[in-house]
Structures are given as structure tokens and as C-alpha cells.
Amino acid sequence: MDSEFYFKLERAPAIVPLVLESRGWTQHQEQHGVDNWSLFWKNGRPKPSEFANGKPYQRYNHFPKTSVICRKDSLCRILRKMKAVHGGIYNFFPVTFMVPNEYTKFVNFFSEQKSKGIWICKPNDMSRGRKIFVFKDILELVYDTPCIVQKYISNPFLIEQRKWDMRVYVLITDFHPLTVYIYKEGLARFSSENYDTSDLENKFSHLTNASINKYNTESGNNKWDFSSLEMYLESQGISYTTLWKRIQKIVVLTLVTLIPTVPQIDCCFELLGFDIIIDENIKPWILEVNSSPALGVECFVDAKVKTALVNDIIDVLKLQSPTEYWAAHPPKKTKLKQPEALQPSRSSTPAPDRISIISDEYSDLVREITNKHLSSPSANFELVFPHKKQLVTELNKLKKAAGSRDFNQVCQRVMNSVINDFKTSK
Description:
Blueprint: E1 6-10, H1 15-22, E2 26-27, E3 39-42, H2 48-52, E4 59-60, H3 72-86, E5 96-99, H4 103-112, E6 119-123, E7 133-135, E8 147-151, E9 164-175, E10 178-183, E11 187-190, H5 203-206, H6 210-213, E12 223-225, H7 226-235, H8 240-255, E13 270-278, E14 284-291, H9 300-317, H10 322-328, H11 360-375, E15 381-385, H12 389-401, H13 407-424
């Protein structure tokens, strides 16, 4: 059990405090002292002042400026640019246009295609499947907010005639040097009705979002964990190991684009949800990247995967309490004041601390899984980057150049080294 640990919340998923309290943590209150906490889990982004004032033993669950890949239009711009510079290694993102800005460009492209195919329209900054629609006829492209229009992966690999995608959880603990862990468990999310391109209006057939398919009263279990997915694919003669390596490559090549953007900062980590779809040729495609991926618990698979996920995040971070930190790093009297952590808080009325609830049944299950984890950790995070010593050397060059006039040049060289390594590796 962890002890003397305090956490703060702001619109956090209910599973987070439930896991932390099961581990012996305490939710931070005013009487505990303004800086006497180790983890602050927020649904939104911390303020610049919060990043600037973060203590060495504290962690926010977001880095600054990572949200750029979590907007659909921004991700399109970034990956399109990387493909133009680095070629086919970035051929894992469907053809995409941003409307209304690129509406004319899209119309011209659409008109030039002998086979018009199927397209999907998604609002830039909405989640949970809201306002998404699939179409063939360009006259059906009607929108009231900035969107992306994307070539639909119309040949998905089906399981029991249903479309599915993978929610891959990715943990970044540092950007300088970039340090990336991928969670070996995750969620395979299924549509709740058979895949049918003759009926493009049926969202239960074409969308895999749990927030959509839970309203299909005739559907059953629409989620598998990756262990079940692996077992099924291997039974069909498909190498899950090969597929997983391809997905790891997509994740890292997407995240290296953030190296020039995210400042050097130590009081953060980031959990992202990569949505990956697999086509009938077993090629993975990135659909989007989710900031603050949903951690709601609505079924047994949710409880199993997400409880272990939150526990494993805490284990990887190796957080320290203020007491532990100051015992190992005595403050210099002229610069730091040890009593700061004991000062009364002067904060304003806090935002709601939780954005979801968990039923009593699943709450008990979360506690049970956490208690088992404490005696036998699941340890499902796999360090996938940096994966070679020479890359660590290159990344350290970038860290040393931070703040200098040569930073951008060094950054570009480091990114090229990383991408070239992927080009030459099998």
C-alpha cells in the first residue's frame, strides 16, 4: 500500500480516485497544505502557471501543447507534412481534407476519381461519435462546423461480420528525451450490427464508438480486451506480434512530431488513446488520437483493462510523496523553503472533481482488481521508445540544446535520425 500520498482531481474519471484510494492515497484538502500533493489528474489542460510552479515530486496528467495531435485537422496537417518530407513510411493515415478550407480541393479530387468510393465526415473537435456521418454522394456533404472529410476504410478486417477498431493506450513520461510506453492490453471495440456498405446511415454498423453502440438495445458485448483479440487473430493464422509491431511504429512516428513543440518540463506525464483500424490486408491505419481517453466503466472488460491501466500508470511514474522527496533532496535554506508544503491553501472554489460515476458492482470489482495488483502487479506497459542506445544519445543532444539558438536544427537532426532508424529497421 502507498502511504502519505495525496492526489488532486478536476473533472477526473471516477476510476482514478477509486484506484488511488484503494492504494492508500488520500484526496488533497485545504488542511493538507498547498503543495502537499503528488498527482493532479485533470480532464482539461493545466494553466501555464501550474506548469511553471510544479514541484519536482508533483505530476500533472498532461504536458503542454500535446493537444495539437488530438484535433483531427491538426493531426491531418502534421501527418500530411511528414509524409511529404519523409515519404511512404508515413503512409498510415487515410487521404483527408479539411473543410470548409479545402472544400474546393476535395471537390476536385473527388471529381477526378473513377471510383468515388466512400467517405466519412468528422467534426474537428468533437468526440464520442457526435455528428459523424458516412457518404458516397458529394451532395450529402453538409456540415455546420469545421470538419475533416476522410477516405473511408471500406475494406476493414471483420470479426464475425462486424467492424472493429483498437483503442491503444500510450503513456509518455518525458519529451526530452522522448520516452514512450505502450500498454499491451487495451480495448477492441465493435460495431453492434453487421458491416453493410449498402446502408451508410446505420451508425450501429459503421461506428465502433461505445458511446454510440450502447444505445443499441439488441446488442450484447461490444468490447474485447487485447488478450482475447490476440487469441482470435492467431486462430485465424494472423500474426498478432507482427501487427503489434506495426502499431508501435505508427505510435512512435506520430509522437516524434511533437518533439519540437513540447517544452522541456518535468512535472508531467500524458496518457493518450490512439484509435487504430485494421484493414483486410492486416494493415493498421491511425484514425485519431484522444487526449484524456475515456476511462468510464460500463462492463467487465472496462473494469479489468482500465483498473489495471491506472494502477500500471502509477507504478511506471514511481511517484514520491513530498516527505520522501525532501528527505532525499534537502532544500537549500537560501533558495527553497521546506514549510511551503504546509502552508494553508488560498485556492478558489475548485471545479467538480469527477466527471463520471461507477456502479457499486463495478466499484467493488475495481477495488478487488487493485488489491490483487498490489500483490501481483500486471506490469503491462512496454517501453517502445527509445529502444536503442544510439537513439538515446541523439535525444540527449536535443536536451542539451534546449533554449539555445541551435535548438531547431538539432531537433530536426534528431527527428531525422529517429525516422531513418525506422526506415532501415525491419
